[in-house]
Amino acid sequence: MKRYRREDEVSYALGITLTFELLKFSPEYATKVYIHSQMQRGESFDKLSSLCKELKIPMEFSDKPFNILSQKENCFCIGEFKKFDRPVSKGANHVVLHNPSNAGNMGTIMRSAAGFGITDLVIITPAVDHFDPKTVRASMGALFHLNISVFSSFEEYKEQYGNREMYPFMLKAKKKLSELKVKKPYSLIFGNEATGLPDSFLNEGTSVIISHSNRIDSLNLPIAASIALYEATKEDF
Amino acid sequence: MKRYRREDEVSYALGITLTFELLKFSPEYATKVYIHSQMQRGESFDKLSSLCKELKIPMEFSDKPFNILSQKENCFCIGEFKKFDRPVSKGANHVVLHNPSNAGNMGTIMRSAAGFGITDLVIITPAVDHFDPKTVRASMGALFHLNISVFSSFEEYKEQYGNREMYPFMLKAKKKLSELKVKKPYSLIFGNEATGLPDSFLNEGTSVIISHSNRIDSLNLPIAASIALYEATKEDF
Asked: What ipTM was estimated for this complex?
């Protein structure tokens, strides 16, 4: 066992909560569950054991993986899973992240997307690793609800999924989010944390701005994406 | 010079961007600017120098504070400031954070609040240090736009500022944010990251929920606060 690397075939759900999310919502990809010697026996452990038995997922009792994979002191359970390829659907609404660079931000966006019922995520590379244990952790397990497709350019994405409404979120956009009526199926598109979307996106569909005061330069990326998700889906909840 | 501690009278804006925010928006509290030997001379440096001269703030050329205060490699400028006491106003809308525990989250909420024109922040202790350099950094300097009052209980806050609409955000609330019409002046109230607001807040004003799917347990705190801020203020932008 080695430290996690992007090229690995498996990744990890660190902690009992994330491991349960894995086993409940993506059991077909779960490969192993590691249990630390300090994990308390009790209701959670029994539930985990019977779930593993039922799903035929081996449990391994060893402290070593924890020293290698986890920095947190109170992590006594790790779910190992095979990285999955579950492409986004043509009829669904998408969140598109163009060159996202921060694992925590990507995970937080996954959590909000799942929260607002959008379970299809498109990633345009270069991008941070969506299977990084840090992403999984920030997603609070929402990753296990998602379909995810990765493309090396926006053009490539459009070729396969172009027949939809495109809403790139940009500071230079004219249409205010609060005045927008989304048409389905749509893609909400967000740029990199530091640089936003390139100007070329002004020509893609309807560009949208979340207007704010001039006291700040911009909103934090997961904040902007979550506000957009809230506004686009609020009639559904 | 020592590492930052909560009981110190001064705190620090790490990096050139934050230092400019300090000098522009809270110059009366700026006490010193530290310059690292690797800071490039050029437009930014000249602007900083003339601003310090104009405001009569001493510049100190020394690498030592950077070793003590900054973990970031590319931080070549630090603005030192006296912690300020600038109470919230009775006529203004407030964001109230009840027992917030994470500096990054608090800073992100400051950034969103300033972005949506709410510049009065109330903190109910126990709470993370709102002057911690990590908070300042996550706020992207928004802290320097804010009035902030700290109370040791919600009751104490109400005694002084009670004559207003209270909107506690809670998963048990009945009123949906998307159906809420806020009345001014108001307080948007948010609980701790892990535990939310205590049930007693169901009896304070109008409790509000940001409805979402059952795929997640809750939204991340700064996400929830920012969505609420967006919805409450969107007619102003």
From this structure: 0.94
